[in-house]
Amino acid sequence: MVETLKALIEYKSPHLNDRMAGIGTRINEAFKRRAIYVHQVWTVQEGAPAVGKLFIERYERLEKITPVSLNEMYNLSDEMQQIQSDLMTAILIPIVAHFQFE
Questions:
Q1: Phi and psi of 55, rounded to 5°?
Q2: pTM above 0.85, yes or no
Q3: Residues 6 or more apart from 86 whose CB is under 8 A from it?
Q4: How far apart are CA 78 and CA 87, in angstroms?
Q5: How far is Cα 9 from Cα 87, in angstroms, rounded to an integer?
Q6: HSE of 59 in the Cβ direction (CA atoms, 13 Å)?
Q7: Taking 60 as the threshold, does the pLDDT of residue 50 lie above it?
Q8: DSSP string, the chain
Q9: Where are the alpha helices (DSSP H) in 40-69?
Q10: How far apart are CA 1 and CA 36, in angstroms?
């Protein structure tokens, strides 16, 4: 969806390219972390599910396990909400306004 939005901006609102590049990077980075937290986090640590105290980040290609705190997950949620707000105010509202005056 980010690439589709970038293409739309390039075609109809090229003055927003720089804003979209920054927001697009933030979206991609946040969603990579989200994929790890949501799809690869579940494990057992010290004989108990690692839910609510410590989450483990697992990579299929790596042996190394990196701890991920519950606080980091909450921070990601806050970051995603901020990105959504920035996307609305910096990109989507200006694009809609542009289309209304065409």
A1: -105, 150
A2: no
A3: 23, 26
A4: 14
A5: 13
A6: 10
A7: no
A8: -HHHHHHHHHHH-GGGHHHHHHHHHHHHHHHHHHHHHHHS---EETTEE-SSS-EEE--TT-S--EEE-HHHHHHHHHHHHHHHHHHIIIIIHHHHHHHHT-
A9: none
A10: 20
